[in-house]
Amino acid sequence: MKTIIVLGTGLAAVGVIRQTMKSTVLNRKDIKMIVVSPSTHFVWTIGMPRAIVPGQFTDDKVLYELQPSFKNYPSDKFEFVLGKAINLDPVGKTVTVALNGPVSTRNITYDTLIVATGASSRDEMPWKALDNSENTIDKLHSVQEKIKGAKIIVVAGGGITGVEVAGELGYEYSRNDSKKVYYIHGDNLPLSPVALPSVRKQIRAELDKLKVKTIPNTKVTNVSTKGADMILELTAADGSTTTLTTQAYIPALGVVPNTSFAPASILNAGGYIKQIKSLQVDGHSDIFVLGDAGSLEDNRGGIADLQAQHLIKALPLYLEGKTMPEYKPMEKPIFAITVGRGRGTGQMGSFKLFSFLVWYMKGRYMGTDYAGALAAGKRTITTKFE
Length: 386
Ligand SMILES: Cc1cc2nc3c(=O)[nH]c(=O)nc-3n(C[C@H](O)[C@H](O)[C@H](O)COP(=O)(O)OP(=O)(O)OC[C@H]3O[C@@H](n4cnc5c(N)ncnc54)[C@H](O)[C@@H]3O)c2cc1C
What we know:
Elements: E1 2-7, H1 14-23, E2 31-37, E3 41-43, H2 48-51, E4 63-65, H3 67-70, E5 78-89, E6 94-99, E7 105-109, E8 112-115, E9 119-121, H4 133-149, E10 152-156, H5 160-172, E11 180-184, H6 197-209, E12 213-215, E13 218-226, E14 229-236, E15 241-246, E16 248-251, E17 255-257, E18 280-281, E19 284-289, H7 301-319, E20 334-338, E21 344-348, E22 351-352, H8 355-363, H9 371-375
Parallel strand pairs: 1-2, 1-8, 2-5, 8-19, 10-11, 10-16, 11-12
Antiparallel strand pairs: 3-4, 5-6, 6-7, 9-17, 13-14, 14-15, 18-19, 20-21, 21-22
The structure holds flavin-adenine dinucleotide.
């Protein structure tokens, strides 16, 4: 019996799991699949900037139980292991898993390994899956409670998540003067210079309309607590410091790859697993890498989606010993950013996207209208399989 191990149950993994079970594993006597993840739930990250606003989404719009999708597979063909990979031996073809709960580990050998362990939030916020699903749900609720009780909310972080969170809070609170919302970011405009200046300026203008008080060229350099308040030390680009008092500090400071289990020889300087264009690991053709954990492209759901779609087609060929097609990385930046529940912006190559289009495609529901089918592996963001 040959074993395919899949590490992770995020956006890059779930479609590959179901579609490979259907196309190959269930139809062949000689292959089984083992899925390893510390999460019992699929986390819909794209909905999280709105989910933290109290009353916007019930938990089941952003957290989807995996078991209903897995329970009908025969036990000799499929196994779900609740735990996280802590070591990978590519020569011995073995993954060591720390099982959730009381300390214990299990070694599992593979013939084919698919690594889709993604990346975690730097700030222990529930933007991505935390150590286990209970912690993700508890943290989501505690952030909602903090926001509910706050008079002043401070969001920090110049990336897409920071912008979307500031926009959601501005739409709900500062627009109607019910709470003050500050937005702190390190550059002179939101996002990095990879984005068009017109897109960055529009984000700033939209936040202004929502009465979000933007503080550019600034970083939060210390956080201390005083009773129910948090005192933030802000350091401006010129080195000067001030303080800002808040009852809800919402950091969105980026992600780090979940690859500490992998040997240094297969990691790049940023800690991402070195992928070649077939999505295999350089020098290890039996290991595929998908999504945020890989080095080939940026950390974006749209990219994880395209890589997953590619592997869904390529893996059956690989397993039959046939030649696989090459993956074509995305050539131009494509992204859509919501700024509150009514507006948005974005970019496709050198074109700025219309606000209405971003609202229609994303901002209306934040993908919660299709996330359930995606979590079940029946579709990706852009392609329906069933
Ligand atoms: C708030 C937010 C909003 C976003 N919005 C957008 C958007 O609008 N559009 C867009 O294109 N992108 C967006 N992104 C980026 C997108 O979410 C990621 O690119 C995408 O989640 C990557 O999917 P993934 O499966 O590679 O990794 P992840 O989603 O990080 O999933 C990783 C999985 O691996 C599991 N795991 C972690 N460590 C281990 C281990 N050691 N062993 C086994 N399993 C492990 C995790 O529990 C999880 O199940 C957003 C990101 C955030 C944080």
